[in-house]
Specification:
With 169 residues, the chain is an alpha+beta fold. It has a single domain, classed as Immunoglobulin-like (Sandwich), CATH 2.60.40.1890. The protein contains 2 helices and 11 strands; from the N terminus they run H-E-E-E-E-E-E-E-E-E-E-E-H. It has helices at 2-21, 153-165, and strands at 27-28, 36-44, 52-61, 67-74, 77-88, 91-96, 100-102, 107-109, 116-122, 131-138, 143-151. Strands 1, 2, 3, 4, 5, 6, 7, 8, 9, 10 and 11 form an 11-stranded mixed β-sheet that branches. Strand 2 (36-44) and strand 3 form a beta hairpin. The longest helix is centred in the N-terminal third of the chain and has 20 residues, at 2-21. The protein is globular, with a radius of gyration of 19 Å. The structure holds copper (II) ion (CU). The site of copper (II) ion (CU) has 4 residues, from strand 9. This is Copper chaperone.
């Protein structure tokens, strides 16, 4: 009888917890679902008179199974697309990808000249220093949340310069 009471209390606490913490939980995963870590998520502020901007992040698949990223959303943005750059006839082109496969224990860095997020339709201006919730959707139903930092063009350019030069003084 006591045990039953406890389990009823536990269930109501759990349901309360899950409904109020939906937006803030880091992961939702079952035992056999890929374990994904996202880091260094950032989106660039929209430049004047532009309708799109870019975002970068790193995704690591710590599991033994392939993970397939199918969609990304960012709070306050009407549309987010996953893009890649490719060389076509000597020209650098970018195109939308419908899904991105991340092999077991593989890390994929979204960066200038490679994979990137293309962001559109801001419902309000992105301000440097803000955090925006980024949600990644995977084909197995897994969703991963992280905060994307809003950065300026200048700081983004600086970072990519620094990572290109590999200087260690
Ligand atoms: Cu693009």
């Amino acid at each position: 009888m006591i045990k039953q009471c406890i389990s009823i209390v536990l269930v109501s606490v759990l349901s309360l917890f899950s409904s109020s913490s939906m937006a803030h939980s880091g992961h939702e995963h079952d035992a056999d679902v890929a374990i994904i870590k996202v880091s260094n998520a950032q989106v660039r502020e929209f430049l004047p008179a532009t309708t799109s901007s870019v975002g970068y992040l790193s995704i690591i698949n710590h599991s033994d199974t392939v993970a397939t990223l199918t969609k990304a959303t960012i709070d306050g943005l009407g549309r987010v697309e996953i893009h890649e750059h490719s060389h076509v006839d000597g020209m650098m082109k970018m195109q939308k990808v419908e899904s991105l496969t991340i092999n077991a224990h593989q890390q994929i860095d979204f960066k200038p000249g490679g994979y990137h997020l293309m962001i559109f339709e801001p419902q309000e201006p992105l301000k440097v220093g803000q955090q925006r919730k980024l949600t990644l959707y995977f084909s197995d139903g897994n969703r991963v949340f992280t905060n994307a930092q809003v950065v300026s063009l200048a700081s983004q350019a600086e970072q990519s310069q620094a990572s290109k030069q590999h200087t260690h003084h």
